[in-house]
Amino acid sequence: MATVELTDDTFEKTVTDNDIVLVDFWAEWCGPCKQFAPVFEASSEENSDVVHAKIDTEAHQRIAAAAGVSAIPTLMAFREGVLVFNQAGALPAPALKQVVEAVKGLDMDDVRAQIAAANNGSPQA
Asked: Where's the Thioredoxin domain (predicted)?
């Protein structure tokens, strides 16, 4: 599966309607983004069960800001609509493969329990 271009309008639906979504936040002027692009594209071909999506941070600044992207490239991984990975910097192919395998291997019941425990344990503002 080739990468999918996301927009401010398609981001949320893509993340919530698919089991696993990797999102590459990038910009045309970004050298490391250009270096990471073929690695990300190769991963999309190897993992057809994972949506590989890209967001041009220049064209879609609203969603990049809402996602808290402060450096590019930034890779985010969502599993069942939950953000489970967020890292700035271009990953080499072996590291990206590890991220994909780790996300696929997550026990989402456990992840949700950890999120609930963290939210219940934190002081309310």
From this structure: 1-105
